Amino acid sequence: MKLSKQAMGSLMMALQKSLLEQSDITETLEKMDFVPAADEEGAEAELYVKNPPLVKFGSEDTSEESE
Fold first, then answer.
1. Which of 57, 58, 55 is nearest to 25 (CA)?
2. Is residue 60 part of a domain?
3. pTM of the prediction?
4. Structural domains in the chain (count)
5. Mean pLDDT by 10-residue block, N- to C-terminus, for the chain (67 residues)?
6. Which of 1, 4, 27, 28 could be stapled to 14 by a disulfide with Cβ–Cβ 3.0 to 4.6 Å?
7. Is residue 45 in some structural domain?
8. Is 64 part of any domain?
9. What 8-state DSSP symbol labels residue 64?
10. How far, in Å, CA of 43 to CA of 46, rounded?
């Protein structure tokens, strides 16, 4: 069984979140619910994440002032 692209993206978002927040990634990974599913009939099942992590970025003003 392999990870789906959605599951790989969810793992990458969990890593990004832990890096941004400087927190332990294991808590986020423990909360993830993985489910197997096959895209096509007879295809090998892949793992999907039912509850991918949400990563929120601050809304900083990045506009540059003209001189």
1. 55
2. no
3. 0.73
4. 1
5. 93 92 92 86 87 77 51
6. 28
7. yes
8. no
9. P
10. 9
